[in-house]
Design goal:
By secondary structure, this protein is an alpha+beta fold. It folds into 3 domains: 217 residues, Heat Shock Protein 90 (2-Layer Sandwich), CATH 3.30.565; 136 residues, 2-Layer Sandwich (Ribosomal Protein S5, domain 2); 119 residues, Four Helix Bundle (Hemerythrin (Met), subunit A) (Up-down Bundle), CATH 1.20.120.790. The strands form 4 sheets. Strands 1-6-5-4-7-3-2-8-9 form a 9-stranded mixed β-sheet, with helices on one face. Helix 14 packs across helix 17. The protein is elongated, with a radius of gyration of 35 Å. The N and C termini lie far apart (114 Å). It is found in: Cytoplasm. Belongs to the heat shock protein 90 family. This is Chaperone protein HtpG. Molecular chaperone. Has ATPase activity. Pfam families: HATPase_c_3, HSP90.
Length: 617
């Protein structure tokens, strides 16, 4: 070893810490490139700032971060024209884990506020914790850093294998800046491919202000856009440019239904550019439960798993960029800080405000939004207690009384005098709802019922419970009293002996229903199912049975229309004949509600026999 080469050892604890940084801190080894590019960008921003103050020579006109893969030598060089490091700084910044030159510089800048009225030219720096550089050892078994401090004549080289220590020695570099040469491991050959490097730059550093280029086979190609659209004033962005960005970042082909672009200033500062798609994505969002809004810190992409929006707004796409968010040392897992909580709250509130504004114009496009994403938005009623009151007016429904979509406020405005509840019916098939026997009594009395058929509709009404002090009641819930509302058409008289008929049917169906009773909420149908007054409604009972969680507590109630011709005829029959007909009545009620007969084969034989008898007669 030359006398000019100084050998330095990592301490035992420091060596172990470095091993943890390399093998445990980052979950994805490709992060190394993001960290090195971020460091290079910071170095160039620092030099630009120092040049304005007269403390360093100006950046060259073609200054950029250059990535140079050399396949024969198996090296990848990350080169910049930034502020550079002296020999002492190389030892301090690279020889001391978690000591960040960027952080120290940022702390100095924080005390240097610009004069009143003067432009703030302080750079926005990315690095914070001084560990990102060591991510290089995930892909390299040896790293050599050659750096020349801006304004100095000498250059020095730092080199290490990431295990026993590092060396410092004089070196040559014609211009200020830093070259980081990674001698790649055998399994890291992918990072010698230009297309792979370009993909990583596009993913992690596409929007940083410093240009990034890939130099391969004598050619230099730009690798990043260098312009963060969300940082531009809205007045400078055309609708076409918004659409282009929406399609590029979200891999969409449609036009955005809504574009939200704003900058939050004050105690909390961030910029957001969000889109609500104009069409459903190809991949069903019902299966994807997490929001994928991209989080950037100072234009550098951090993650799309920050949960910036709740799952019930996961259809929203776009970017949130902040300079205030503290990150943990790996930048891959965010700290649960009040700052992040405030950003989530602010972004969620802004999206809801946009929806509330657009919901006033149903014909102007809100209907198309609702048909695309309404079922997802409904999940917010079930999941988000704090936001239920804001979400409820945004919901839209089909109705037994009006065409098209309607809302809860509109329903309340149309309620009959004396009506105390908001009534709804849930089923799997939207079309079947319109002719459901469950609606007959309500239609006869001019009472409106909301028709729900989305996969979440069995769950959220119970969570909302009330709207404008009106309780929500399923029409299949037993015990509904409609006696205060007279039917609009006269009703036939009830069959004599109905009490005995009810008792006989109940005895015959013991174990299949929890109760049998006469009802005044049927007009054209002979029977209908309902739920007991204290249990879940019918749709929830069906879901429980499908999940194998049904039981005596979830058995339905069979309600009989005492004015129907079939029931009037049965009321005068012997108990044995009533017992035989009881099973068919139950199966008819099940079919009417979109369910299957208890024994489809037996039911088919019964119907066939009845038809044959009628034909012979």
């Amino acid at each position: 070893m030359s006398e000019t080469v100084e050998r330095h050892e990592f301490g035992a604890e420091v060596g172990r810490l470095l091993d943890l940084v390399v093998h445990a801190l980052y979950s994805d080894r490709e992060i190394f490139l993001r960290e090195l590019v971020a460091n290079a960008a910071d170095a160039m921003d620092r030099r630009r700032f120092e040049a304005l103050r007269g403390g360093a020579p100006a950046l060259p006109p073609d200054a950029k971060v250059r990535l140079v893969p050399e396949k024969e030598a198996r090296t990848l060089t990350v080169s910049d024209s930034g502020i550079g490091m002296s020999k002492e700084e190389l030892g301090q910044n690279l020889g001391t884990i978690a000591r960040s030159g960027t952080r120290a510089f940022s702390q100095t800048l924080a005390t240097e506020k610009p004069a009143e009225g003067a432009e703030d030219t302080r750079p926005s720096l990315i690095g914070q914790f001084g560990v990102g550089f060591y991510a290089a050892f995930m892909v390299a078994d040896r790293v050599r850093v050659t750096s020349r401090k801006a304004g100095a004549e000498e250059a020095f080289a730092w080199e290490s294998d990431g295990r026993g220590g590092y060396t410092l020695e004089p070196a040559e570099r014609s211009e200020p800046g830093t070259d980081i040469v990674l001698h790649l491991k055998e399994d890291a050959g992918e990072y010698l491919e230009s297309y792979r490097l370009e993909h990583l730059v596009r993913k992690w550093a596409d929007f940083i202000t410093v240009p990034v280029a890939i130099v391969a086979e004598g050619k230099e190609e730009a690798a990043n856009q260098g312009t963060a659209l969300w940082r531009k004033p809205k007045s400078e962005i055309t609708p076409e440019r918004y659409t282009e960005f929406y399609r590029q970042t979200g891999m969409n082909f449609d036009e955005p239904w809504a574009t939200l672009h704003w900058r939050a200033e004050g105690a909390l500062e961030f910029t957001a550019l969000l889109f609500i798609p104009g069409a459903k994505p190809f991949q069903a969002i019902e299966g994807e439960r997490e929001s994928r809004v991209r989080l950037h810190v100072r234009r550098m992409f951090i993650t799309d798993e920050a949960g910036l929006l709740p799952s019930w707004l996961r259809f929203v796409q776009g970017v949130v960029d902040t300079e205030d968010l503290p990150l943990n040392v790996s930048r891959e897992m965010l700290q649960a800080t009040p700052v992040l909580t405030k950003i989530r709250r602010a972004v969620t509130g802004r999206v809801l405000s946009e929806l509330a504004s657009r919901a006033k114009d149903l014909e102007g496009g809100y209907a198309s939004f609702w048909e695309n994403f309404g079922p997802v938005l409904k999940e917010g009623i079930y999941e988000d207690f704090e936001r239920r009151a804001e979400i409820a007016p945004l919901l839209r429904f089909r109705s037994s009384a009006v065409e098209g979509w309607t809302s809860l406020p509109d329903y309340v405005a149309r309620m009959k005098d004396g009506q105390e509840a908001i009534y709804y019916l849930v089923a799997d098939d939207a079309e079947a709802l319109k002719g459901s026997p469950q609606l007959e009594g309500f239609k006869a009395r001019g009472i409106e019922v909301l028709l729900l058929s989305d996969h979440v509709d069995a769950f959220w009404p119970e969570q909302l419970n009330r709207f404008e002090e009106k309780p929500l009641r399923s029409v299949t819930q037993g015990g509904l009293d409609l006696s205060k509302f007279a039917p609009e058409d006269s009703e036939a008289e009830a069959a004599p002996g109905i009490e005995a008929l009810v008792a006989a049917v109940k005895a015959a169906l013991a174990g299949d229903v929890s109760d049998v009773r006469a009802t005044d909420r049927l007009v054209d149908s002979a029977v209908v199912l309902s739920a007991s007054g204290s249990g879940p409604d019918l749709q929830m009972q069906r879901l429980l049975r499908r999940a194998g969680r049904g039981g005596a507590a979830s058995l339905p109630v069979l309600e009989i229309n005492p004015r129907h011709p079939l029931i009037r005829r049965l009321a005068g029959q012997p108990e044995a004949e009533i017992g035989q007909a009881a099973g068919t009545l139950l199966d008819l009620a099940r079919i009417q509600d979109g369910d299957t007969p208890r024994d489809p084969v037996a039911f088919a034989r019964t119907v066939a026999a009845a038809l044959a008898e009628r034909t012979n007669g």
